[in-house]
Each structure stands twice: as C-alpha cells, then as structure tokens.
Amino acid sequence: MKVDIDMGSQPGGKAATLDLEELLATRLLVQGNSGSGKSHLLRRLLEQSAPWVQQCVIDPEGDFVTLADKYGHVVVDAERSEAELTRIAGRIRQHRVSVVLNLEGLDVEQQMRCAAAFLGGLFDADRDHWYPVLVVVDEAQLFAPAVAGEVSDEARKLSLGAMTNLMCRGRKRGLAGVIATQRLAKLAKNVAAEASNFLMGRTFLDIDMARAADLLGMDRRQSEMFRDLARGHFVALGPAMSRRPLPVTIGPVETSARSTSPKLTPLPDAPAPEDARDLIFTPSPEEARPMAVRRPPPPPPVSTADILTQLANARPKAEEPAEPMLPIIAEAEHAAMIDEVLREILADPDAAFRTVAVLYQDFLVRCRIRRVPGEPLTLADFRRRFAVARAGVDMSREGEEGWSQAVTLSAGLPDDLQGVFLVIARAALSGAPCPSDATIARVYGSHSPSRARRLLAYFEERGLFVTRTDFRGRRVVAAPDLNCETAPGDPAGPADLSQDMPSAAE
C-alpha cells in the first residue's frame, strides 16, 4: 500500500511528499545545528504518519511526550530497570502500541543504557511480532557517538551496538530507523551510512557542510548553501522523497514541545539599589527555616556478655604468605646470568644485523634454555642493556665517572642509535682510537660506511660530538659534555670486533 506523507512544500508551492512504505525500507537521517528545526521536522513526520504505522520515539529531552494527548502515544518513563524496559519493548511489538520513551532527568550514561535495553527488546522480539515500526531517535549522537566520551566503555558499546542493529539489521525485523543529529561528525559512521534518505538542515562547520554535501552528491562549492538555510528549511534526497537534492520547507504541526526556544520578554521595573540588595541577600522565610536532618537510628547497644565473648575468642591465624611463583635469587647472580646470555648473543656475527625485536625473542629463548630465574627483562630494559653491551661496558661500571653521564645522554637518542653513541663515548672516555666507519656501521647493523658518516653528522648536529681530522687524515671525535676525546683513528680501517662484553667478574 502506497502512503504519501505531506512534509510541507517545495519550490513552486508543490507539496513535498514522503513515501512512507519506501521510508520503512530505506531509513532516514536528519542533520542540522541546534535551532535548525530538526525536532519540528520529526514532529511533522510523526503526526502525519501516526494513523498509518506504529511509532517508537527515543526522546532524551521529553519533547515528544505531548504526542500522547492527541495521537494516543503511551509515555514510558525510563526510570526502570534495564530488564523491565526490555520486557516492555517486547510487549510493545506484540500489541503494536505507539510509545514515547522519555529519558528526561537521566544522565547521559543512564540514557545510553536505557535506550540500549529498549532497542534490544524491540530488536529481539518474536518473529510473529515483526510488524512495521517507525523508530525515531532524537539526538542520535548521544547514543551512537563517533568517539569515546566521558561515559564508560561498557555503556558506549551497549548503546552503539543497539543503534547499529537498528540501522543495519532492523529492516528485516520491521524496524525503520529515523535518526536526527546536530553534527554528522559526532555520529558513528557505520550508523549514519545505513540511511538512504537524507534531510540536511542549517549547519556552519566546514567538516559538517562538506560531509553533508558528500552524502547528497553535491559539489563542495555548493556546500556553502547549508549556512544560508532558514529554520525549518532542509535539503532532501533519497528514494522516499527525491532522486535529486530538493529544497523542502517543513509544514506546521498540531502539537508542540513542552520546552520552547527562549523569547525576549521585558524586564520588570528595577527596584532601588538598597531594595535590590535586600532581595538578593535576605533569605526568604522558607530558606531561613532550618531543614530537618534525618539521622539514622543508633545501633542497639552490645551487651557486656557479648563483648567478653568476642574478647575470649582466639584471633584467627594469619594467612601464610604465598610462595613466590619464581625462585628468589641474589641480584648480583641474576645480573651475571643475564650478562652471560647477552655475551652469547653478541658472539653471533649476525647479531649486529638483526632488529631489536628479533634479538629480544632470541634473548628470552636463551634465558629459558639456561633456566635463568626471576622476572625476565622487559623490551625497554633489554634494549638499554644490549646497547651498553654493544659498547663493551659492564653494567656494574655504570657508576664510574663519566660513564653514567654517557648513559644518561644516550637515553635521549632513538633506540637504534644508543649503541653507536656509547661505542664512540667509550672510546673517548678511555682515550682509545676513534672507531672506523666499518666498526660504527657494524654496531648500527649496516654494511654501509657512508651510513656511519651520516650518523656522525647527526651526532654533530645534536651537539653531542665534534669531529676533526689530523694531518695524517685520521679522525678524532671529541665529546664536549663528557670533556674527553678519542685518539686518532683511521676512518677507512677494518671493523673492530674486539669490543666484547666483559665478564661480570671484571
């Protein structure tokens, strides 16, 4: 049966009609800033379609409860348990009663939970009760937010899941979603994308105008028109209204919301300044009356016999501390075993060319093979210990003069550069020849000498090293923060692989 709903007028005075049967199959999205006339549009749609189809309105502000007086909607106050709302929704589908779920007075999280329970009851109704229902959700961005807000993740997931079921899977169950939102950017995309009909009202933000124009298939330059739309004027598109963007002016309604837009009213005659101060700072008789505070009744007194009995009872035995899951081991012994595993990894000639993630997995496997007790190193601790090991300095020597400062300076560098910095810093602190390009590239995990030169240039840009060349073409690297420098070294020399990690006993 084809039913055309009169939504108002279009240019030229022709009536703007909406095919109700097509709407039930393709759903509707209404968008417009506050004051653009979204609630007026929804009220017009509900009033015109009330004789033809069952309606369920999710009303967060209590604006649509006035439909009960003229059109017989039953107002369901949401101050109930979630299980009760679910059962009520099932009976609503069974008896085909139009209702308004009034969420007024609840905070946002409670509104989301109540709406999720109610929509879940509509969705899970028995197959025999899958009659057509127009489900109108005002302020849909509250129930299907695009991003997490101040509400709990559980409430957000429940509400978003219920809205997704309504828009994505509700058609086969007879549920036709009509959702209205102030901003498309605040509405979850998987919910908005399921609507095939659109009524776009006034909006000002560029991102919302661009998205509205994109949904309507309009040019981005045409999106400026959404700023100029008057209250109650919308642009319609969809199989239920028009195959091309069509300006529509929403017609009048027969009922009104309990809350209206603020209107300017004349101020009362201003009292004298002294009288105004008295009106503000003098409490009224009702305020001056002390409020009676109900205190809970005192607990009944405990008899002396009961107190003596409690004192005579033996104290319960303290619970024995649970045995640790991992055996206890001295810190020095544990560090020595970790150092031994690191030396094994460094002894592998291919270790320099593996990523830290691969080396860390190898480290964990070797620790299990050697049955190293205690908690294993985290990836961050392993990266730091391995960088120090590559530099050939024992962890127990970090307290030596100059070396602790070098480790501190390396902490501000990227992970893959810390080992290179410490190798050069070690040579400077000990007065050893400057490492060659091949040695630096090897520590970095590369075969390219030019990469080593770029690394030195990077350190110079950061002000960590200063590089110079003597008369024989040998390189000297000075560390200003450490107040030391390396001995001259041949940059083109072979890779020096003698920087093994010393034993823990050294």
From TrEMBL:
Superkingdom in the source lineage: Bacteria
Chain ranges of the Helicase HerA central domain: 16-109
Region described as Disordered: spans on this chain: 251-275, 482-506
Record-linked InterPro entries: ATPase_Atu1862_pred (IPR014588), HerA-like (IPR008571), HerA_central (IPR002789), P-loop_NTPase (IPR027417)
Pfam families: DUF87 (PF01935)
Protein name in UniProt: Helicase HerA central domain-containing protein
Protein species of origin: Phreatobacter oligotrophus
